[in-house]
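Pasting as-is:
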Amino acid sequence: MQAKDLKPGMWVEHQQGIAEVVEVDHDHNTAIIEKRHDHRRVNVHCDDLDEQPQLHTGCDHYY
């Protein structure tokens, strides 16, 4: 994904699992995400994130 496609509160999939986007840095094409399973926040490159349309805000499970 690209930073322009991300917004805070969006659920995405990272190689380490499902995460919520906390903040997006458009200048560096990075984002701070909060991992669902341990609530740790990490800074990752947006190319490492995949959009999951089956996830939606307020729900951390596929439907």
